[in-house]
Amino acid sequence: AFIGGYALIWTVFGAAAFLFDEGVHAAVDSSPWIEERSWAIGAGVLALAGAFQFTPLKDACLDKCRHPAQFLTRYYERGPAGGFKLGARHGAFCVGCCWALMLVMFAAGVASLVWMALLTAVMVHEKTRPMGAKAVPVTGVALLGAASIVLMYSAYAAGAV
User: What's the pLDDT tens digit per position in 9-21?
Assistant: First the structure.
């Protein structure tokens, strides 16, 4: 039941991310203005993920993921329904701390196993390693830097600068 609740939350997130991606593609396909500047979308996703690394929400959700024993003890209820609710609640905190990096993975990683592996390693490190808390702002700076590089390079290559 716990795994079912956890998987349901991630499935809902995955479906929402997929629908958002479909909407972005539809917007690009239907608007010549957006199509000419589609290079800004990748930079925007990187910037969003980088900025999210510095939010209190990221820290609060990571705290629940880093200390699962405390979380599980606090919200434990007997029976399958209790297990399902516990899994869903824990899944919500995991989505809360990882959604932005998952969007980067969705945008960049779908075409590259290397990017998927790198982003997975970052998420696992942030959530499980003792030094994970110190990695969060470093990841944020790296993502914001990557967004700047992608934005500048892409704008230059597209002749927008």
Answer: 999 999 998 898 8
Q: Residue 9 has which token pair? A: 């939350």
Whole-model pTM: value is 0.82
Q: Where are the alpha helices (DSSP H) in the chain?
A: 2-30, 32-36, 39-52, 56-66, 68-75, 79-108, 113-128, 132-157
Two tokens, residue 51: 């900025």
From the list 55, 26, 65, 61, the residue with the least C-alpha distance to 143 is 55
User: CA neighbours within 13 Å on the CB side: how many for 31?
Assistant: 10
Residue 107 has pLDDT above 80, yes or no: no
- DSSP character at residue 31: -
The Cβ-side half-sphere exposure at 90, using a 13 Å CA radius, reads: 26
Locate 23 and state its tokens.
């909407």
Which residue has tokens 């199509």? 35
